[in-house]
Amino acid sequence: MNVAVYIIIGVVVVLLIIFLAIYNGLVRRRNQVKNSWAQIDVQLKRRYDLIPNLVETAKGYMKHERETLEAVTNARNLAQQLSSAGAGERAKAEGELSSVLSRLLAVVENYPDLKANQNFLALQEELASTENKISFSRQFYNDSVLKYNNQTQMFPSNIVASMTGFKASEFFEVTLAAEREAPKVSFT
After folding, report:
1. Which of 29, 79, 148, 164 reaches 20 to 30 Å from 108, CA-CA?
2. CATH, residue 83
């Protein structure tokens, strides 16, 4: 055989190895994005499970705050309904839920008996912990999306990505300033 044939075969093998390494890297990043999205879902499910208990505990004390309690319940239901929606729609619904939760916790300040209720205090603490976990999960998701999107858009992996159908993922972003604030939880 001619030396040129060996060189061509060698170049083809090297290019194939590079292609496979890039493709596997893209798959790994895409799976990391999916996993981090699932982690957000886990924390949101925990939040959804806590909210009815929080509302029920508050109902006995807050007879005049029916509108606030209904807003919390409606926002929770909407956020749950959008559980299969994209990151943008989910972020908007979750932001609204955070907003009404912060309103509920602000109204609680007017009810000293409720603030002293051990069950309500435990639920408040669980909710604060869950909000922190949601925040960390969103950050991890966005970090994963950034790495994945960088890999799908940078040379030479962008060539492999376009050939094999990898598309950029959407970040989990809040759009309104009020949505950027976590619900305030007071233990005083």
Report:
1. 79
2. 1.20.1440.20
